[in-house]
Amino acid sequence: MLTQLSINNYALINQLTIDFSSGLSIITGETGAGKSILLGALGLVLGNRADLSSLKDTSKKCVVEAKVAIATYNLKDFFEEVDLDYEELTIIRREILPSGKSRAFVNDTPVKLSVLNELREKLIDVHSQHQTMELSDNSFQFSIVDALAKNQDKIDSYKRGFVKLNQLKKELQGLETIQKEENQQYDYNLHLFNELEEAKIKVDEQEELEDKLEKLNNIEDIKLNLSEALEISANDEIGLQNLLNSLENRLSKIASFSKEYQELSSRITSVKIEVDDIVSELEDANENVEFNPNEIEEINDRLQLLYNLQKKHYASNNEGLLKVFEELSEKVSQVENAEETINNKKKEIDDVAEKLDKVATLITKSRADAIPSLKKELEFLLADLGMENARFSIKIKPTKNYFANGKDELEFLFSANKGGNFGELKKVASGGELSRIMLSVKTVLSANTQLPTIIFDEIDTGVSGEVSNKIAAIMQQMSKNMQVIAITHLPQIASKGKNHYKVYKEEIKGVTTTNLKQLSTEERIKEIAEMLSGKDISDSALTHAKELLN
User: Fold this and answer.
1) Cβ pair 498, 470 in contact under 8 A
2) Helix (H) or strand (E) holding 309
3) Do 529 and 512 reside in the same domain of the chain?
4) For the RecF/RecN/SMC N-terminal domain, which residue ranges apply (predicted)?
5) Is residue 105 part of a domain?
6) Which of 196, 254, 331, 357 keeps 20 to 30 A from 206, CA to CA?
7) By C-alpha distance, which of 410, 373, 360 is closest to 149?
8) Residue-wise pLDDT tens digits, 197-247
């Protein structure tokens, strides 16, 4: 529940800190005193959008802070989900800087407004007059039925499946789109794929062929130079081998005379071995040199094929061609396997839909089971609020369509008069009737949801007399299970509060400021008497005020 609200530099408020307690708290004040400013500040700290107009002094920042006791409301899992520190007394703070920038914190951790709004839904329900129009909103009507039907877990499960189903349908649509596009290109892609597959391309093939072609194109020079190299190396009289043999022979004869000569001899022997090896390879190379016109033609044809394919596919080498080949293979395979993939995706959709249908059926049944009790409770509460002939026609219609909260359509109609026709709430109920209907709805919701705090902003508009006493009694009953804060202009309701706060304006140094204070017993008597008779408080009004408080 809300335990404290602190406001600094907001609208007409300089600085204000007010403590709240459990039970029913009442806020009163003259029209224009600033009750809406309090709600605006509370809305700001709970995630409403803000701008510089919220600042009383535009040179200083505006800070609104709310302390909320949450120990008994099972919110640890939520705090873990949004990565926030859980504190039994949670502090929510909102700051608006003079620059216009807005910041929000939960237990001193910066948060986005989306997180703040999620937390708000679990902590405080602020009901103002214009929100009675929610009664005609179909999603709100569903929330009433589902609260009484205890459907939250089932709907959470359904929503997870609903998200999964939509994701799968989106994937199927994507696959079908791709299949359609790829089918148009399939024949051409298959032709290109087969052409590259038939070419049997290897990564280093082009370089090897170009080297081989270079040899064959210069075969005469190669043969001539290899022959002359052999002549120079292996001639019996003047060849390198013969000369090295003679050199080795001379040095071997003096090797024993000195270490220096021995090293020279060894080096010549090494050179001779290397030259012998070279001569052997020259002989092999010379024997293998053959001119083959057919081979040149084959290599030229092969290289031309590679060059043509590279140009066709904008590839700079064989590696690029192989990458194109892989891409074409994937495209061809995608089309050839698309039917199977699409069928598998359809089966997956059918499986999820089947599970979703089972959950939706359970939701439909629990809604249908809850409607008689909901109808009975609402009509009973409204009868107590002076609308004895109020009747509801609430019907659940199962459909084949998947909606965000199930597969049902909801018809939520109302008749205020005996024998009257049923119609949409916004068309057949007056403003005062809508206020009483909303109070009845909130009463039902409070008994079936775990909401810590509810704030009523003049929900008693358009009612008076005995009905106002009934409204006060209902609020008192609600406050046994939750914190109720009511902004009211009716003394009958104001007198039923456990705590009573007054909003008032005062002028300080020529500047109008809004303040809020908790009233003592004597101050309450005076405030209620003023609500009864106006500024000129009569003795009878004071007596009546005391009677109301007692």
Assistant:
1) no
2) helix 293-312
3) no
4) 2-507
5) yes
6) 331
7) 373
8) 888 888 888 888 888 887 777 777 888 888 888 888 887 777 888 888 888
